[in-house]
Amino acid sequence: MADEADYPGSRRSVYTTLAAGSPFRHEIEVKRSRFITVLARTPDEDAARSVLAGLRREFHDARHHCFAFVLGPDQDVQRSNDDGEPSGTAGIPMLEALLKRETVPGVADLSDVAAVVVRYFGGVLLGAGGLVRAYSESVSSALALAPLVRRRRLRICSVPVGHAAAGRLENDLRAAGYVMADTRYEAQETVLRIALPDDPDSLAAAAEHVAALSAGNARLMPEETEWIDVPMG
Question: Which helix or strand (DSSP H or E) is residue 124 part of?
Fold first, then answer.
């Protein structure tokens, strides 16, 4: 659960994004028009536009490929496009659906997400208000079903340990609730990597826990901070 300490000033140390994996798809129908929403996790603008380009090729016979995306921990980059729909009836409602999505009560922190809505016209004009509602609902209903994760800025700490002992220590650390980053395998040892809150008390407690679990044979070595996926909750 996020709290106010996660959002000091304007620089966030946590935000919400899509879980890693394939883009999420969801479809609604409004007066015979099909609205196919594709949500993709995108770390930068090139990736977001690549998703759009791929969907233009896949749904080459669709009339519209409208998009919106939000990037960065502080949602600094925001783009949208109506792709031929009347101005303001598609891209902006889609962008607002991304920006207003509350991931916990009172917190709208979704980012690094691109939304593309592919529309197949069904022969019935929806009008400006109808289009705004349809594009907004298409993205909002997809977000309600899509898997989400927290991205936290955490201190990475390495724990060098002999190869034979690494598996058991890693299992013990996971069982204790620690978030594990990618493990490094070196010639003489395995380097487990733990993602911890970047404060002295958390680091000291983890160091004591590692020493206890390893009977004093392993020690915690703080390194850089990284953005790490952690489960929602």
Answer: none
